[in-house]
Amino acid sequence: MNKIFLGILVYWLTCGTGTGTKAEQEVQPPHNQWSFESPLGTFDRGALQRGFQVYQEVCSTCHALDHLRYENLKDLGYTEAQIKVIASQHEVPGPLDDEGNPTKRPGKPEDHFVKPFPNEKAARAANNGAYPPDQSLVVKARKHEADYVKALLTGYTNPPQDMKMANGMYYNTYFPGHQIAMAPPLSPGQVKYADGTPSTVEQMAHDVVTFLAWAAEPTLEERKRMGVKVLSFLALFTIMMYIVMRRTWRNLKK
Ligand code: HEC
Q1: d(CA 249, CA 254)
Q2: How many cofactor units bind, and how (predicted)?
Q3: What is the mean pLDDT of the chain?
Q4: What spacing in Å lies between the alpha carbon of 208 and ligand 1's midpoint?
Q5: Which of 165, 169, 180, 204 is deepest in the core (most CB within 10 A)?
Q6: Closest CA to 189 of 32, 56, 54
């Protein structure tokens, strides 16, 4: 009997109290109110534009957003003229010149977002060996999605005293394993928002995550609208069928 008790105690001490595995070190991110999460939710246009500004001024120095073209920004409420200006601020590879050398030209609306590094090796070399993932799907690709990415961006603190940090790594409460190669990317007042919103870290994180959620699923609003149409049709169809049934039975009962 004692042996069983001792066995359970040892098991509890070694496994049960969360002394080590990666899964146990995962900290649940707090839940946020996102404009796009309810069944009829849409993206908050102000947050989208501010989030794009944060991506453009901060994140895009390390993270690509490969599947987007500048012209897709019209979904965010930008006009064609504004998109032309945004695209032209980036340099993209142009045609070879007369001597066969590569050239650069200003971006056009139909160009894909410019990548910060020519290849993965160069990206790793600049980031302590770690690869800054393409952000096209990053919100969808992580458990807890938008809540996780926001918690990650705001979750940097000093490591606990007994934790040995590897060289060039930063402590983050929400990153699995807690050691991340991305330095805290946001600091208060880092971007000057075009609409005058105060740029706290919380605000910038909220906005950039809204933008990345749109980037991961630009057709979300269309999908939800379609859902509403289908449900309305089904509701109408049900009512019609009910009326037909009542009439049929009324005639039969006579
Ligand atoms: C100086 C370069 C740099 C900047 C700027 C930067 N990141 Fe990162 N980011 C990285 C690196 C490197 C990694 C990979 C970290 C690792 O695997 O340890 C990363 C990883 C991530 C991840 C994935 C975390 C995971 O769970 O795997 C997300 C999400 C992310 N960054 C979001 C952002 C956002 C949003 C911004 C802008 C506000 C940003 N990053 C700015 C370098 C950067």
Answers
A1: 9
A2: Binds 1 heme c group covalently per subunit.
A3: 89
A4: 12
A5: 204
A6: 54
Separation of CA 95 and ligand 1 centre (Å): 32
Closest CA to 167 of 181, 155, 157: 181
Cα angle 30, 55, 84; round to 5: 145
Q: Which atom of ligand 1 is nearest to the CA of 209?
A: 35
| Segment 133-147, tens digit of pLDDT | 999 888 888 889 999
Predicted pLDDT at 4: 65
Say if CB 15 and CB 158 are below 8 A apart.
no
Q: Which residues line ligand 1 (CB under 6 A)?
A: 54, 58-59, 61-63, 127, 130, 132-133, 138, 142, 149, 152-153, 175, 180-183, 185-186, 208
Whole-prediction pTM: 0.84
DSSP bridge pairs for 93 = 104
Q: State yes or no: 63 annotated in a binding site.
A: yes
Tokens of 115: 């990548």
**Whose alpha carbon is nearest atom 19 of ligand 1?**
132
**121 closest CA partner among 130, 108, 110:** 130
